[in-house]
Amino acid sequence: MDADTLDPLDRQLLHALHLDGRAPFATIANVLGVSDRTVGRRVARLRATGAARVTAVVDNRATGSADWLVRLRVMPSGAGALARALAGRPDTSWVTVLSSGTEIVCLVRAPAGAPAPLETLTRHPHIRDAYAHRVLRHLMNRRWAGRTSALSDDQAAALQAPLSDNAAPIALNDLDRRLLPALAADGRAGYPHLARSVGWSESAVRRRLEDLRRSGAVRFDVEADPALFGFSTQCLLWLTVAPPRLAVVAQAVAGDTETAFVGAITGAANLLVIAVCRDETALYAYLSDRIGALRGVERVETAPITAYAKRVVPALP
């Protein structure tokens, strides 16, 4: 499936699933003015072609875990194999291969207070250097605008899942440790299937998931390649920002339509941005006209993304 085959209804469905990945098909159908069967058939096609996958995302504030951004300098001949190996780890997310073919960047979730997880990540023979940066704070409270602009404000409001801005630490139990990985693999799995998978009653699974969502510990998102929306260029931007301007610059960048992620990190560069643009010309314009004009930005390192080996956020540390 490519951008030419992603029609307006597909875009509306993806927007709806971004708002609530577990929204019943009947609810989505009612808001969009189509039949339940049409919604079910379209979502099944999007999933079968790999265009979209709903997954559970666990808030690390709730689980008491920490995110580390790891940069690995690698030998070009081993980049592909290493990216696949990292993608197979349960603690990694958005494993990316950069355009040079000599660097892989991934996000690793670890228990809070634990050291940077470099020891287990650097055993591969093709790794030359490794750097770990703690993600101090996620600074973007919305999703990339390119994939969430197909619904009207009224439609979006009717589909928006209840949100919590105060995710409090919770004690994970045995049910969570079975349930959350299953939901990370398939965020739309039905309660009977989940109950069979985890060995608990359907009512217990339903109640626990409702509690997790209400507390803000778990939300549901849909993975979709920006290329499906006609955006072919993705780039990591490592910004070095004067500390007094860090919050202002982060807020400004987080509001840009080109931005998919903003995070404050440790290291020489203190702000990481993932920019999504239609092409290289649009990326150049964004860098020169927007980023270059922000007061306080002292240095910018750009790293175009060649491919994603993994996009899903780990369910548990």
Automatic annotation (TrEMBL):
Keyword Ubl conjugation attributed: no
InterPro entries, sorted: AsnC-type_HTH_dom (IPR000485), Dimeric_a/b-barrel (IPR011008), Tscrpt_reg_AsnC-like (IPR019888), Tscrpt_reg_AsnC/Lrp_C (IPR019887), WH-like_DNA-bd_sf (IPR036388), WH_DNA-bd_sf (IPR036390)
Parts of the chain that traverse the membrane: none
Keywords for the protein's UniProt record, in alphabetical order: DNA-binding, Transcription, Transcription regulation
The organism's place on the tree of life at top rank: Bacteria
Residues in HTH asnC-type domain copies: 6-66, 172-232
Keyword Transcription regulation: yes
The protein, known as: Lrp/AsnC family transcriptional regulator
Lineage: Bacteria, Bacillati, Actinomycetota, Actinomycetes, Cryptosporangiales
